[in-house]
Amino acid sequence: MPQIMKIEEAIKKYVKDGSSIMIGGFLGCNTPYKAIDQIVKQGSKELTIISTVNSFTHQDMGKLFDAGLVRKFIGSHIGTNAVVVNQYRTGKLQVEYYPQGTLIEKIRCAGAGLGGVLTPTGIGTLLEEGKEKIEVNSKEYLLETPLSADVAIIKGFKADKKGNIVYKGTANANPIMATAGKITIAEVDEIVEVGELEANEIGTPGIFVNAICLGYERDEFIQKSREMYKAVGIFK
């Protein structure tokens, strides 16, 4: 059974110096804002952050890089964050790139207990360096191995007290990352009683969740998102 915890308690218990952390969401969309803010406040260092893309400069996940807490980023894109690009160019940050589909499949493999995935993406490019090639039906593929993390921090809409998660809108990588963390922290808008969620609504079964935490209230979460998009010039 997962524990219902304050976000401060969950981050203190599970996030340590040197932790590898998967963070769900996509450029602020269904990103666990409160957990990120708490990691910054706690000041855990030498982190490896795994996310589909990096954030906008000084926004959401970018706060971790502003504070100098990240040693390595694993993802598909950093170009929306000038701080991260500069840290990478000056050797302060390691970056490991994967095509986004490949990254998601590596995470899915870790969650499903598979040994890897075969993909033609990257054949004939720098991405094939150091990787095993396997031929199937006269076609070459790269073997991409599973990618897991010490902690996965996901953002859901609702959770019941057994940790079953419902998502609202685009779930992004959250459901896949929930399966691939050794520990999964679910930041949600609301916690309800068991039986209140419709079975066909559930995107992540509670068996994958270790801690359920309330994030910012929904209105505050939406306002933070609006402020972020205004700051980067997407909204006026």
Automatic annotation (TrEMBL):
Keywords attached to this entry: Transferase
SMART domains in UniProt: CoA_trans (SM00882)
InterPro entries from the UniProt entry: 3-oxoacid_CoA-transf_A, CoA_trans_fam_I, NagB/RpiA_transferase-like
Signal peptide: none
Pfam families reported in the protein's UniProt record: CoA_trans
Molecular function per GO: transferase activity
Transmembrane segments: none
PROSITE patterns: PROKAR_LIPOPROTEIN
NCBIfam families the record matches: pcaI_scoA_fam
Protein name as catalogued: CoA transferase subunit A
Protein source organism: Clostridium brassicae
